[in-house]
């Protein structure tokens, strides 16, 4: 019997039981579907480890139990992160929409190269060394690009210079 035949036999025999197991324990139908998929993906990858006969069902239950535990840990981590982010956002001082529009317009008017290094530095929190690895240049070049992009953004925000000059320099 090939690995494929073995997997299909296990799937056909035990899908209903694993479906019921996941449906009774998961928080939603989508979560149950994820548990079932992960369980049988593991069985496919490790078909040589799946025992014969009724022991296969117990093995699948064990896999499904671990998948559910991983899913619950992930949900817990996401809930903690969401709560932390809510707290951080609540602590930020409110900014008037006009200020945000002005910043967005200035940012959007920058050349793509400037927007990318600024986003990597500010939104992703990357250092110039890591930015260099992402964009494929030296750390010195990334530091220089970031410095120039910050200056162009500041100038655009102050309305001191036209961005067409900045685009020519890039």
Shape: elongated
Structural class by SSE content: mainly alpha
Tell me the total number of β-strands.
0
CATH fold-type name of the largest domain = Rna Polymerase Sigma Factor, Chain: A
Q: Kindly state the mean pLDDT as a whole number? A: 87
Largest sheet: none
The CATH superfamily of the largest domain is known as: RNA polymerase sigma factor, region 2, helix turn helix motif
Q: Tally the helices: what do you get?
A: 8
Low-confidence stretches: 161-166
Secondary-structure arrangement, i.e. CATH architecture of the largest domain: Orthogonal Bundle
Assign the CATH class of the largest domain.
Answer: Mainly Alpha
Cα-atom radius of gyration: 26 Å
Order of helices and strands: HHHHHHHH
Number of domains: 2
State the separation between the terminal residues, measured CA to CA: 63 Å
Helix content: over 70%
The portion of residues forming beta strands comes to under 5%
Please provide a written account of the structure.
By secondary structure, the chain is mainly α. It has 2 domains: about 5-90, RNA polymerase sigma factor, region 2, helix turn helix motif (Rna Polymerase Sigma Factor, Chain: A), CATH 1.10.1740.10; about 95-170, Arc Repressor Mutant, subunit A. About 80% of the residues lie in helices and about 0% in strands. It has 8 helices and no strands. The longest helix is centred in the middle third of the chain and has 37 residues, at about 55-90. It is elongated, with a radius of gyration of 26 Å. Mean pLDDT is about 85; it is low at about 160-165.
């Amino acid at each position: 019997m090939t690995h494929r035949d073995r997997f299909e036999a296990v799937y056909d025999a035990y899908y209903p039981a694993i479906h019921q197991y996941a449906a009774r324990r998961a928080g939603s139908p989508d979560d149950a579907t994820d548990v079932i998929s992960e369980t049988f993906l593991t069985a496919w990858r490790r078909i040589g480890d799946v025992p014969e006969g009724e022991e296969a069902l117990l093995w699948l239950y064990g896999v499904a139990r671990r998948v559910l535990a991983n899913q619950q840990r992930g949900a817990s981590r996401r809930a903690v992160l969401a709560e932390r982010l809510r707290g951080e956002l609540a602590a930020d001082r409110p900014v008037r929409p006009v200020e945000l529009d002005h910043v967005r317009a200035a940012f959007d008017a920058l050349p793509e190269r400037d927007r990318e290094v600024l986003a990597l530095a500010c939104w992703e929190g990357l250092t110039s060394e890591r930015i260099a690895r992402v964009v494929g240049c030296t750390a010195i070049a990334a530091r220089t690009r970031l410095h120039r992009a910050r200056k162009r953004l500041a100038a655009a925000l102050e309305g001191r210079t036209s961005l067409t000059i900045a685009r020519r320099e890039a």
